[in-house]
Structures are given as structure tokens and as C-alpha cells.
Write a structure and sequence with these properties.
Strand 13 and strand 14 form a beta hairpin. The chain is built from 18 helices and 20 strands. The protein is 33% helix and 17% strand. Helix 4 runs antiparallel to helix 5, helix 5 packs across helix 8 and helix 9 packs parallel to helix 18. The strands form six sheets. It has a five-stranded parallel beta sheet, with helices on both faces. The protein has a five-stranded parallel beta sheet with strand order 8-16-9-10-11. Strands 12, 13, 14 and 15 form a four-stranded antiparallel beta sheet that branches. By secondary structure, it is α/β, with parallel strands linked by helices.
Length: 497
């Protein structure tokens, strides 16, 4: 603990954001990094707790508390305070394969369980993490780590999202020959096509992919298992196969008028927008343009917010976000005590942008979509809704009741459905004939083996829709398991062993 009174002497400072009116005119990241002086102050706020709750990585009441990859947060906070950036980078990379991703897009459950956050705003852990890895690249410290020996063992990783990349990175460092199969035209999974450029610029993803290639990992894009190569061929060509396909089956809203032209899944919209931005090959009519249109986003989460920000950059006429739940409180309730993840009202980057452009926060709460209405050509023209009341039922569980007389008609030519994901797509799982339960691959956490010999599963395909830090956790853990399976012992670190 470099400065014993740092948490009392300094207040939390937020990363500087570019002006919303300016940034909605481009696709670059919306925030700017801290100066070294600010980073030192923010690192000084860390208390170096005897029990660092920031890194416990547990699920409490269904939400993640602390860091699931168990980052050595107090250690590199102190090193940041002292300006020892290269040493901080070494400590950070001991647990996190891709800090440049988590430092930008992770919701930072570590900050929710920071001890300072009991009475004051948390230490700016996420901003410090991003600064450490960015300095690593800027100063040339991030160089290829090419394994000196190879094991003659071959591993196929299907999917190049954070779980697939983490498992590939670990197994490559163990000396195995790793091939990553990606059906899209670029590697990165949702890091590339699911997260908009203004949150994670794609050159950051491409930089990491290039580094992994230099270290010996082979990426095969435009390679769809079941179409371009069969599951049997993969098993014949490799000593182990890891399914890291993510949870990409989007949850639908099956209501009257769903077939109207202009109603789309959120991820289809975000993917097409990024493909258009990157100049990727696109099929006819694949790009969805919100220019001049009234846009409604159904779903109150991060994906919905990303749709708002994307529609603003397309110069939409208006945008509204529907949320099923009531507005969150400004401070913790008795049922949401520290160190649980704080369920508090926040204003995301997209909401700031919409407010700046249109004058109001775009979010509407406690609302249910009843039907979509189209014109004579089948094009969407209206969305009908009703307000909801959240009450506790006789069994103690919350239910939602419609409030009579609150029906409303909203003009809309585009709707984006952002209400989550059901699980992995079934076609590939059927190719491998792996067992599933609750729409997920049936593979126990810590073991990761499926019912099919030498086929493993990790990440959202196994656990369901989750956080990037859990994906990295599972990618590292499955690599530990696969290395042991191939060699009879393992040199790879594990959080569980």
C-alpha cells in the first residue's frame, strides 16, 4: 500500500469522455485515457485490503461479485501509483490474457465489491487496467512469446471469442499446435461483430489476433463447422476439440406483427453495422440503416444501449429504449448490500449521447410491447405498448401486471429486439452429438468434458450468456484440463487447482 491515506486524500475521477455531440459523428472510442498523474492518484486510493473482495470472483444472488479471473488488483494498483508500469503489466498478465478487452468492455464487478465502495466511490480499477495494457503495447513490451518446444499434439478451438482466444493462447504457450475455426470473415467473435467500435475499436482486436498469430496460433476464418468441414473431420485431424461457440441464439419476442419489415434482432443490426464500417463482404440488403427513422430498442441492457449509440451514428430521427423493469435506485437497497454487484441507476455512454441529441434520456421503464403494426406494404409503422406494475405474488416471487388505461402507440420504422440469448446454436452441437441441458452444452465446470471423447466445451456455450471475464476464466480452465488430457500432467496455471 503505497499511500496509506490515499483513499481519504483523493476522490474517484472518471475517464474523460469526448463531447457527445462530436463523437456521434464518428465511430471512434468515446472515452480518453487518464494522464499518468491521474492514474497515480487513482492507484493510491486502493487500500491493499487484507481480504481483497475486488478479486473474489463469486456469484451472489445471481450476479457476479468481484473479478472471476482473480486479477491481482491491489498489487498492480500500487505499481500504477508508483509509476512502475512494466512491472504492473507483468502482474496483470499473470491472470488476464486480454486486459485490453476487459479494460474496455467488462462491467467491472471488481469495482462493485471494492472495499472503498462501502462508503465512497470505488477505486477506478477498470481504467487503471486499461492504462497498464495500453502502455504495454505503446512501449513495445507486448512482444510475441513463441514456444521453444512443440508437443506434436494438435487442438481445434471452434469460435474466436474471448473463451476461444483464451484457451488457444494458453494451449499454444504449452507447446500444442492450435487452430482456431471461425465462421465469420474476421476473428474475434462478439469482440469484433457484437461490440460496437465506439466501445472497442477493431484495431485493438486485430492487434491481439496478429500477436497470437505471431506466437503460432493458426486462425481459419470463413470456416463453418458442418458446412466447410465436418465434426468428424475435425476429430480425425486433432487430438482435442474445444467448443467455444458462444451463446448466439437470440431470444425472440413472439407477439402480433413480429413479421413486419423493420423488426430485427439487435445482434443482426450491430453485426451488419460493423461489417459495413470495416468494409467486409456483405450480402445484399444485409446492412440495416436507421437514417431518418424512428427507432425503438426493446431491452434495457448493454446490447440495447449499443443499438441506441449505433442508431444515433446512423442519424436516426428518434430513439427510445423499452425496459421491462422499474427504474433502478440511486443507492443500494437493503436487499443489495456490499459486496454484491450494485444494482443502481447509471447513465451509459449511449444514453448520454441520446440525451445530448434529443434532450431526454431515451429510456422508458416498466413497459411491455403488445404488438407491431405494419402498413399495407408490410413495413413497420407503429408499436403498441402498455405500462406494467411489478408486484410480489402470493408465492413471494415478483410478477408483472398490466396497468389498465396506460396503452400507448409509438411511431416506429425500426425495432431492435435486445432481450438476451437462449443459448448456443443447435446445428453445430448436433454435428458433434454432444449432450445439452437447458439449451447449453452439458459439460461440468472444472471438468469441461462432454459426452463425446476428446470434445470439450467452455464459455457461454457451456454456461450461457455471461461476462467477458467468465469467458476468459473458462478459456483458461478448459486449457488446463485439455493440457492434462493430452499430456497426463499440465504446466498451465488454474484458478481451481
Amino acid at each position: 500500500m503505497g499511500k496509506t491515506t490515499g483513499f481519504m486524500d483523493y476522490k474517484r475521477e472518471e475517464a474523460e469522455e469526448r463531447n457527445p455531440h462530436t463523437r456521434i459523428k464518428d465511430w471512434k472510442e468515446y472515452d480518453a485515457p487518464f494522464s499518468d498523474e491521474v492514474l497515480s492518484r487513482q492507484g493510491a486510493r486502493c487500500m491493499d485490503c487484507g481480504t481483497p473482495f475486488c478479486q473474489i470472483g463469486e456469484e451472489i444472488n445471481g450476479a457476479t461479485t468481484g473479478c472471476p479471473i482473480y486479477n491481482l488488483i491491489p498489487e498492480w494498483n500500487d505499481l500504477a501509483y508508483r509509476g512502475q508500469w512494466e512491472e504492473a503489466l507483468k502482474r496483470l498478465l499473470k491472470t488476464n490474457n486480454f486486459p485490453e478487452f476487459t479494460g474496455r468492455v467488462c462491467p467491472a464487478p471488481c469495482e462493485g465489491s471494492c472495499t472503498v465502495a462501502i462508503s465512497d466511490p470505488a477505486v477506478a480499477i477498470k481504467s487503471i487496467e486499461r492504462a497498464i495494457i495500453d502502455k504495454g503495447f505503446e512501449n513495445g513490451w507486448m512482444t510475441p512469446r513463441v514456444p521453444q518446444k512443440r508437443t506434436a499434439k494438435s487442438v481445434a478451438v471452434i469460435g474466436s471469442g474471448p473463451a476461444g482466444l483464451a484457451s488457444a493462447d494458453q494451449l499454444n504457450q504449452a507447446g500444442h499446435t492450435v487452430t482456431v475455426y471461425e465462421r465469420a470473415d474476421r476473428a474475434g467473435g462478439l469482440l469484433t461483430y457484437g461490440i460496437p467500435n465506439m466501445k472497442l475499436e477493431k484495431d485493438v482486436v486485430e492487434r491481439r489476433i496478429k500477436l497470437l498469430e505471431q506466437e503460432g496460433i493458426n486462425f481459419l476464418v470463413n470456416m463453418e463447422v458442418g458446412k466447410d468441414i465436418t465434426a468428424e473431420e475435425l476429430k480425425e485431424q486433432h487430438d482435442a476439440v474445444i467448443l467455444c461457440t458462444g451463446s448466439q441464439k437470440q431470444r425472440d419476442l413472439v407477439i402480433e406483427g413480429r413479421e413486419a419489415n423493420g423488426v430485427h434482432f439487435a445482434m443482426d443490426y450491430l453485426t451488419a453495422s460493423t461489417k459495413n464500417l470495416l468494409g467486409s463482404d456483405m450480402q445484399e440488403n444485409e446492412f440495416i440503416d436507421a437514417k431518418g427513422k424512428d427507432v425503438i430498442v426493446i431491452g434495457g441492457g448493454d446490447t440495447g444501449a449499443d443499438c441506441i449509440a449505433t442508431a444515433l451514428r446512423h442519424n436516426c430521427n428518434s430513439v427510445v429504449q423499452f425496459g421491462k423493469h422499474p427504474k433502478l435506485p440511486l443507492s443500494r437497497t437493503e436487499g443489495n448490500m456490499w459486496p454484491e454487484y450494485p444494482n443502481l441507476f447509471t447513465v451509459d455512454y449511449a444514453h448520454k449521447e441520446a440525451t445530448a441529441k434529443f434532450g431526454d434520456d431515451p429510456r422508458t421503464y416498466s413497459i411491455q410491447t403488445k404488438r407491431f403494426i405494419s402498413d399495407d406494404n408490410g413495413d413497420l409503422k407503429e408499436v403498441h405498448t402498455v405500462e406494467m406494475e411489478k408486484v410480489r405474488g402470493e408465492d413471494g416471487k415478483f410478477i408483472f401486471n398490466e396497468i389498465p388505461g396506460t396503452e400507448k402507440v409509438w411511431p416506429a420504422q425500426l425495432v431492435f429486439i435486445a432481450i438476451g440469448f437462449e443459448g448456443p446454436e443447435s446445428q453445430l452441437l448436433q454435428q458433434f452429438d454432444v449432450n445439452t441441458s437447458n439449451r447449453k452444452v452439458d459439460a461440468k465446470y472444472g471438468d469441461f468434458t462432454t459426452n463425446v471423447d476428446k470434445v470439450f466445451a467452455a464459455g457461454d456455450a457451456r454456461r450461457g450468456q455471461s461476462l467477458i471475464v467468465w469467458a476468459i476464466n473458462e478459456g483458461r480452465e478448459v486449457a488446463h484440463k485439455v493440457d492434462h488430457y493430452l499430456m497426463g500432467s499440465t504446466v498451465l496455471p488454474s484458478y481451481l487447482h
